[in-house]
Write a structure and sequence with these properties.
Layout: H1 3-14, H2 18-25, H3 31-39, H4 47-54, E1 71-76, H5 84-89, E2 92-97, H6 102-112, E3 133-136, H7 160-170, E4 174-180, H8 190-200, H9 215-220, E5 227-235, E6 246-254, H10 255-258, H11 279-282, H12 297-312, E7 321-322, H13 336-339, E8 344-345, E9 355-356, H14 359-365, H15 379-388, H16 392-405
Parallel strand pairs: 1-2, 1-3, 3-4, 7-8
Antiparallel strand pairs: 4-6, 5-6, 8-9
Helix pairs in contact: 2-3
Length: 418
């Protein structure tokens, strides 16, 4: 088989366009033209490009089902699909995905067989398919403890207004938003209050002129959304996974569609698993883990020194050590790849320094299934992706409760609002 035929066959198996194929290979703006040239045998890829092509996974485990969907949804700021999969599991069909990070796109494509669209700010409302549920884990760095906490003054914080713009234009019957728990207290609670006011369509929801947002988003502020909204901070450890992770979840239902439904107890009545996993349930045996995950003497010495310095100042900061018997671990963050300090695994049983979690263990503490494909990107990128992702069992519980509360019967009706 010639190189041209190999590339055409590869892309055909993936079922994607030349443009999306170029994205997966890591080509620039002229990537589509380059792929076309490869397939026409006008020129050949470099050795490194060919290696990247051969390394693209072909068999995505979570492709769309051929069954008639129960409802349609869009997946914004999608990351690697941690919010999508639970809603897909209950019969939903994803009709649009938006994610700008090129590495997350690769992992997403390896698992769902689709390459996400890019920057949501560049997708006009008329380019977004009609949908019944909007899902968005909107960028959290602006509100997080690890970030600058600038909120709406940070361009990442203004991404909420893109959600608001789409809600105003497309009027989906329901939505689920996710963010860091610090959003609840940001700016004395005023940031979250502004968000809730906008979603509920209250007239006092006014955004200052100096907050940056697209013209379309600002124009849409005058359109009242009129959703019934509730929010809650939920702990991942309450949903069976061994991780101390807290996030704000915001649920909304259109009043003119589901005005009869009281959301007050929505979060109190979430279904929870009977079994609570501990660290030993998700960790590999230390002896079986590649030694490359064991931290060096130099890094360990640095961790120990900084922990002593923090102790001298009277605070509890520093690296954290966990074992197979630990009930849960700290929250994994996007910076985990740097030194692993928030979650190190004790290896005294085999006489080694502590080690970092493997990417598969990171997937497990976020509740991702075992067949979730981790082969598309490097360990460094996987650490970032799982640190930025969601705890899937929490989303699965919310999705199930949403279906139960709205009276949706699989295969009989849907959430489509006229």
């Amino acid at each position: 088989m010639s190189v041209a035929e190999l590339i055409k066959t590869k892309r055909s198996k993936l079922g994607i366009t030349q443009k999306h194929f170029a994205e997966l290979v890591g080509l620039g703006e002229v990537g589509e033209r380059t792929v076309r040239g490869w397939e026409n045998d006008e020129h050949k890829p470099t050795k490194s490009a060919l290696e990247r092509i051969l390394g693209i996974p072909e068999n995505a485990p979570f492709k769309k089902s051929s069954k008639k969907p129960v409802f349609r949804f869009i997946d914004l700021f999608a990351g690697i699909g941690g919010i999508r999969l639970p809603f897909q599991n209950i019969g939903g069909e994803c009709v649009l995905t938006s994610e700008w990070d090129k590495y997350s796109k690769k992992t997403y494509a390896a698992n769902f067989g689709e390459v996400p669209s890019g920057d949501i700010t560049k997708i006009a409302a008329d380019g977004i398919p009609d949908h019944d549920v909007l899902l968005a884990g909107f960028p959290c760095q602006a509100f997080s403890q690890a970030g600058l906490r600038k909120g709406f003054n940070d361009t990442r914080g203004t991404m909420f207004f893109e959600i608001q713009r789409i809600l105003a234009a497309k009027r989906p019957a329901a939505f689920l938003l996710e963010n860091v728990k610090q959003l609840k207290g940001h700016d004395g609670g005023r940031t979250l209050k502004t968000i809730i006011n906008i979603l509920e369509g209250k007239s006092e929801a006014v955004v200052p002129d100096d907050v940056p947002m697209s013209d379309d988003a600002r124009k849409s502020l005058s359109e009242k959304l009129d959703y019934n909204v509730e929010f809650q901070v939920l702990k991942s450890s309450d949903f069976g996974v061994p991780q101390k992770r807290e996030r704000v979840y915001i649920i909304g239902l259109r009043r003119d569609v589901f005005g009869h439904i009281d959301l007050e107890d929505f979060f109190k009545d979430l279904p929870k698993p009977k079994e609570q996993l501990i660290m030993g349930d998700i960790l590999e045996n230390n002896i079986d883990v590649d030694p490359k995950y064991t931290i060096s003497d130099r890094l360990l010495a640095g961790h120990e020194r900084r922990k002593l310095e923090h102790a001298a100042k009277g605070n509890g900061f520093g690296y954290s050590l966990f074992s197979h018997s630990s009930p849960y671990c700290n929250t994994i963050s996007a910076r985990y790849y740097k030194d692993g300090s928030e979650i190190l695994i004790d290896q005294s049983d085999i006489g080694r320094n502590p080690r970092k979690l493997t990417p598969r263990e990171c997937a497990r503490i976020q509740g991702f299934p075992e067949n979730f494909n981790l082969s598309a990107v490097s360990d460094t990128q996987l650490y970032r992706q799982f640190g930025n992702s969601v705890s899937m069992p929490v989303i699965q519980s919310i999705a199930s409760r949403m279906i139960e509360l709205t009276g949706i019967n699989i295969g009989q009706t849907n959430l489509i609002a006229a």
